Amino acid sequence: MVRAFAAALAVTLASTSLAWCQRLSDADAAALIEKSRERALSYAKSLPDFVCTEVVRRYQQNRPASARMWRQLSVQTPTAWTPTDKLTIKLSFFEQKEDHKLVLLNEKPTGLKYESLGGGTGSGEFGGTLRNIFDPQAQAVFHWQAWRNVRRHRAALYTYNVDTEHSLFEVESGASGGIRKAIVAFHGDLEIDSDTGDVLHFTYVADQIPKELNLNYVSTSVDYDLADVGGRDYLLPMHARMEIFSPALSVRNDIDFRDYRKFSADSSIEFGPGK
């Protein structure tokens, strides 16, 4: 009895190991991308109206001569980043549109508008960026790489790239009154739930940035997980990171999304210490 159980367990483990090592066929890899495309393009429509707390910790640092050198340094020496401020934001998602209201600046109430803040700010975690990747107009090229275990989900890792001609990714730089913009190519990776087709993680890196923007590197990464909103679980952003490197200055935003709750006309969130 024990031997039979052990033998069956060994077969199960061997089959599981094989499944994790087995490479996806081109047909299956393409089918999963199409499933993920369908999910991504309808993602914003699938979400309820909600509010949440968005906490943004912003950092900056003078950078070495090359973006590659700085990226290596920032990984090896995290303290190279100097904290600049902490933003606590009431984020409302209503009728598929995001609204950011700055509530606290460095833990203190403020009357400043989110849109008026200098430095790096971002949006698009609730479907806009995924649409830029999966929109058929973008003609993204996807390549399956490996299997990953992502927060208890079996996920397929893909790399992708989109050329400038088909890109929907707009990068901008400069201060008010002198903002420069350009559509750029981009690349990144995706971790896709093999069962549902949901994107659990993505990165989004600008390529071929025009010299007039005076930027060396622009990237965004987002992690998604299930969160309860009104008694039902939805796949929602939990953490994001944005990095922008320029010849004079580099900035990083670490963003956490917390306290999701159903939207109502009088929705409010408590912003106490440590929130």
Rg, alpha carbons: 21 Å
Beta-strand portion reads 35-45%
Number of helices: 5
Integer count of domains: 1
**Topology order in helix (H) and strand (E) letters:** HHHEHEEEHEEEEEEEEE
Instruction: Give the CA-based shape.
Output: globular
General description of the model:
- This protein has 275 residues and is of the alpha+beta class.
- The chain has one domain.
- It is built from 5 helices and 13 strands.
- Strands 4-3-2-1-13-12-11-10-9-6-5 form an 11-stranded antiparallel sheet, with helices on one face. A two-stranded antiparallel ribbon has the order 7-8.
- Strand 12 (232-245) and strand 13 form a beta hairpin.
- The chain is globular, with a radius of gyration of 21 Å.
- It starts with a helix and ends in a 13-residue tail after the last strand.
